[in-house]
Amino acid sequence: MIKLVAVTSCPTGIAHTYMAAEALTKAAAEKGIEIKVETQGSIGVEKELTPEDIREAQAVIIAADANVKTDRFVGKPVVITSVGEAIKNPVKLIEEALNKKEILKVDKAKTVSRDDIINMIQEDKALKNAQRTGPYKHLMTGVSHMIPFVVAGGLIIAISFIFGIEAFKQEGTLAAALMTIGGGSAFALMVPILAGYISYSIADRPGLAPGMIGGILAANIGAGFLGGIIAGFIAGYFTQWLKEIIKLPRAFEGLKPILILPFASTLVVGLLMIYVIGKPATALMNGLSIWLKGMSDINAVILGVVLGLMMAFDMGGPVNKAAYTFAVGLLGSNIFEPQAAVMAAGMTPPLGLALATLMAPKIYTREEREAGKAAWVLGISFITEGAIPFAAADPFRVIPSIMTGSAVAGALSMLFGVTLRAPHGGIFVLFIPNAVGNLLMYIVAIGAGTLVTALMINALKASAWSSVLSKERLITK
Fold this sequence. Notes:
Residues 4-99 form the PTS EIIB type-2 domain. The protein has 477 residues and is an alpha/beta fold. The chain has helices at residues 16-30, 51-56, 83-88, 90-99, 114-131, 134-160, 174-203, 208-220, 224-245, 255-293, 297-313, 318-331, 337-359, 366-380, 388-393, 395-415, 439-476; strands at 3-9, 34-41, 44-46, 59-64, 78-81, 419-420, 436-437.
């Protein structure tokens, strides 16, 4: 039997990773092909591919929006794509992998041939151009590594508020200890981890130290997550540039990744952050903070609408992640309203579609009604990807409907001044005292967005359904 292997990995490692794995597995089974899919999700690597798996495989599929190492697949035909493509077109990917003749070449970085190195760089550039997701993929690699720190820190901070919103100020109490763990430690690492893994994604291990140190500097000078992102990209691209231009005798080559690159890159990035980039980035961050804290109701509603539209537009894709990253980054600056709007807007797409299948089951297929049941769970868990099965089947009706509902939820959340101190958790964080400010109106905002989504999609589908019935009657006559 023909055998394939695959790796799936999305930035957050929560839903897309496993949806892509399931889609590939199902498509392979229908074609009578054996496939083993390794998932690199938020809980780590599962179903890890063994050397024997890879050796027996005819080809490899890498469906990832985060950084995945390809060294172990040298000598095999490798198809690299996004997790979204694997979810939408698994059969096409499998056929592409089976038909691909070109194999992945040996890592030229380990050889001394200049021609090979040039070829490798050209191949890398061609690959990145083809994917058109280079900076986005680097950013998402940083975000995916940052999220566990944000989630752990945010939830522990939220627990500290159970004892009172100001209880942590009293030294020696459990609330103070929880705040030290969540705010003083986990959140303190948030920006350095973001910057470090952006740089790591670009330049591999030599980029990690300059990226993280640049991130610490960004945090210390008040440049926040914007400064961290800038530091990460500078560190990564500068380190990568040094890797390419520095040529050493073979006997000293080992000094480059452990001494020369980290030292030179850290020095340059550090000085740039302190003397050149730090002040403008800090001013930008301060200006953003002041604007967000002093927004009028109209501006708040507009921001809520924009964040809502972004959260629903691609359901876990780049636009969705940009809105989420923006809101999560502001948590470190004690700005909590955008996070509330983002989570509300991210919950309503699957919740609205689930409600729609209950309100008008006749206009949905049996598969859609089953997907609706799962969407309830995904929606309350703040997993926007639960709307994807519906959007894939009927994008022109579903996507406008969920964007409208999310815009309503985001706008109302901002209008009501709702605050959310936890970066994730869905409905479950609502039960943590003081984690959500203005809880009652937050529930109203989520409910309104859910209802608008359901009513709009049912109205659009009912119209199409009536049109089909009319044609059938004409044919019968």
